[in-house]
Amino acid sequence: MFRLLAATLLALAAIPFAATGAAAQAQGDTIVVGAAVSLTGKFSTDGQHTKNGYELAVKRVNDAGGIKVGGKTYKLEIKLYDDESSNERVASLVERLIVQDNVKFILGPYSSPLTAAIIPVTEKFKIPMIQANAASRSLFTKGYRYAFAVLSTSDQYLSSAVDLLAEKGKETGKQPSSMKVAMAMGDDAFSLDVRAGILEAAKKNGMQVVIDDKVPDNFTDISATLARVKAVKPDIFLASGHATGAATATKQVADAKIDVPMFAMTHCDSAQIAEKFKGISEGILCASQWAPTLSYKDKWFGSAGDYNSLFKKTYGYEAPYQAAESSAAVLVFADAFARAGSFDTEKVRDAIAATDMETFYGHIKFDDTGKNIAKPMMLYQVQNGDYVVVAPTKFATAKLIYPRKTP
Amino acid sequence: MTNLLLLFDAPSLIVQVLLDGILVGSIFALAAYGMALVWGVMNIINITQGEFVVLGGYVAFTAASWGLNPFLCIPVAAAALLVVGWAIYRGVIYRIVDKDLFISVLATYGLGILIAQLINLVWGADVRSLDSGLGTWFFLDGMVTVAQTRVAAFVLALVIGGALLLFLRLTRLGRAIRATAQNARAARALGIDTDRVYAATYAINAAICGAAGALIVMIFVLQPFVGLIYTVRSFMIVIVAGLGNLGAVIGAALGVGAAENFVGFIFGTQFQAAFVFSFLVVVLVVRNLRLQRRRMYLK
Predict the structure, then answer these.
(1) Over the stretch A341-361, which tens digit does the pLDDT of each residue have?
(2) Minimum CA–CA partner of A217 in chain B
(3) pLDDT value, residue A190
(4) In this complex, do B270 and A187 lie within 8 Å of one another by their Cβ atoms?
(5) Residue A34, Cβ neighbours under 10 Å: how many?
(6) Domain co-membership, A141 together with A12
(7) Do B270 and A184 touch (CB under 8 A)?
(8) A353 and A389 housed in the same domain
(9) Looking at the predicted structure, is the pLDDT value of residue A318 above 70?
């Protein structure tokens, strides 16, 4: 009885593959791009942003007439699976996309660990993969040939805040070498990269790192670190640990009335600190890949602001950078297909490697390791309950409030 | 080492670190006491503990978003979890209550995953937190800061613990629970409906966790998948305190909380967890040696 049941279930499970296997190939007049993103599990919020970003760009490219490849116009189509935020699942789904669904081009999942899990698969099958949501440095040191990333790497997230502090210090007559840096970093791959970047920037500016804590357990309590921050009075306090870390740091720094001239973190926008922690989030600096107020432009979406309004009209919320960078990854594929003039994976790979384009998300140009070296990180500051860009100075829409007034 | 000197330079910091540890420890004490109760009465190690806490937090969050005062959300969360706990007992736990300890660990672990995923489906993976609307007290020139929410949580944790103690001592059901914990067979022989006692115990545990969750969402932040932290913490406290009495559990929770915070202060936050688990190992080894010496240890 059990065997019969199992056999029936297996047969049932095989039907959708049999059906999609033939349809999903890159033939006819559609090009299929595949992706596994996190629609359930711990990354489901950011995974949803990623999915929306991909789908919006695919729709936009098709609405604009599709892509001309070798004299014929093709439509883009995206095939998505839910990876349940699991490393094992995402790798097997990408393998399924390549082997069973015959997809030849892959868009990345959300987060560095999941991307690290799929790159060995795409490399094995020599499939070009463009990802937009994995900033970990370690992904670019392994000599991968088919993997590309449109975003800035994670070590750049908060090093810009340290540089900004040095700049402000000089303006206010304080030597950077007399400044003290304190940080609480989550014990995850991303945050440790962020930390490495901070250490480098601090060293470059001659600053002293007085507190360098790694926070375990999903970043739920940093009171021991904060007690020390209170004692050593650093010039900057930095925190990183995804959305949980941002929310925890915002709340506990306010609870303990920590008074630091500069307070910077990552993932403020995913934690929505300006909206959810009104008042106490004032003056916090947030590292961001992108902002809707930037002056970047492209032929598909127009300006960054246009992208934001289209996104808001379609999905009912402001475009987070996770969505913007995901859209940008699709645009890189579109651009590369047109330039390659073919769907040969090697030719497309070379075309991607030669990318040098301006998008609403920023300039995109890859180095030999596949990371985008043309776009800087930005820093937001929460001012009057709103996120405003304060650095780099070239794109700033508001003046940095320094030192931070403790709410 | 410089951090240690810092403590001597500014003794007020000792007060700060101690207070932080004790205030937070009291909330862990609640979840730990619930775990000890279920373990002692039903011989089940309830791995779902952390998920009950998280669920309680989310219920409180939702109740608050309907305009309820955050502190009134505590009884709401407790009541909701009482029902959830009872339903889970009737649905799953009663099937495994006489089984091997290992089965119950597996089953409650599975339940924990299920609940976490359901929370994720219903509320999403966003980080949630509740503003209690209270401020911060300053002492000793602002060197010691105490969030009033934490003090309120501390007091409430003690009140809930005290109420539970009285309930177990004075009420009929409470006595039946204690009798069942002592000897389930004898209790049954004397006419106690042990199945009802188990259901009540499990539901009460869930309610306590719910209250703890409602406090935690005000002090910390919640996310659907942080439950395991609270389970492990409860487990740790129960191991240190033993299953015996509420006083020991509260003492262990406060003590571990404070000690852990000192370790975090002196060596860095990354060593807090390492300390907690090393301490657990030491406690187990010492207890084992003592039992061996008294020849109470069965090889």
Answers:
(1) 999 999 999 999 999 999 999
(2) B229
(3) 84
(4) yes
(5) 24
(6) yes
(7) no
(8) no
(9) yes
Which candidate from B20, B120, B225 shows the least CB-CB separation from A223?
A: B20
* Per-chain mean pLDDT for chain B: 89
Instruction: Tell me how many domains chain A contains.
Output: 2
A360 touching chain B per CB within 8 A: no
Closest listed residue to residue B161, CA positions, set B109, B230, B212: B212
Residues A281 and A319 placed together within one structural domain of the fold: no
- pLDDT tens track for A56-110: 999 999 999 999 998 899 999 999 999 998 999 999 999 999 999 999 999 999 9
* Residue A184 · residue A249 · CB < 8 Å: yes
Interface pTM (ipTM) of the complex? 0.83
Residue A110 lies in a domain: yes
> Are residues A80 and A162 both part of a single domain?
no
CB-based contact, A208 to chain B, within 8 Å:
no
Of B13, B120, B229, the CB nearest to A218: B229
Contacts 24+ apart (CB under 8 A), A88-96: A88/A117, A89/A36, A90/A36, A90/A114, A90/A117, A90/A118, A91/A117, A91/A118, A91/A120, A91/A121, A93/A36, A94/A34, A94/A36, A94/A118, A94/A121, A94/A122, A95/A121, A96/A17
Angle of the B49-65 helix axis to the B73-88 helix axis, nearest 10: 140
Q: Based on the fold, state whether residues A254 and A389 are members of the same structural domain.
A: yes
Kindly state whether A407 is in contact with chain B, defined as any CB-CB distance less than 8 angstroms.
Answer: no
B6–A272 CB contact, under 8 Å: no
Q: What domains does chain B contain, in order, with CATH numbers? A: 2-268 (1.10.3470)
Residues in A touching B3 (Cβ below 8 Å): 228
pLDDT score of A18: 43
Whether B269 sits inside 8 A of A213 (CB atoms) is yes
CATH code: domain of residue A344: 3.40.50.2300
Q: Does A225 touch chain B (CB under 8 A)?
A: yes
| A350 and A384 assigned to the same domain | no
Report if residue A406 sits inside a domain.
no
Residues of chain A in contact with residue B145, where contact means CB-CB under 8 angstroms, are: 230, 255-257
pLDDT along chain B (299 residues), means of 10: 72 86 90 92 93 96 92 95 96 90 92 93 86 79 83 90 90 93 92 94 95 92 89 90 82 91 88 86 87 68
In a domain, A373, yes or no: no
A70 and A124 part of one domain: yes
What number of H helices and E strands is found in chain A?
Answer: 13, 17
**Residue A255 sits in the same domain as residue A384:** yes
- Given an 8 Å threshold on Cβ–Cβ distance, is A257 in contact with B138? yes
In a domain, residue A404? The reply is no
Question: The domain containing residue A127 runs over which residues?
Answer: 2-152+293-365
Mutant choice from A40, A242, A251 vs B, greatest count of B C-beta within 10 A? A251
Record the tokens describing residue B165, joined without a space: 């103690």
CA–CA min distance B229, chain A (Å): 7
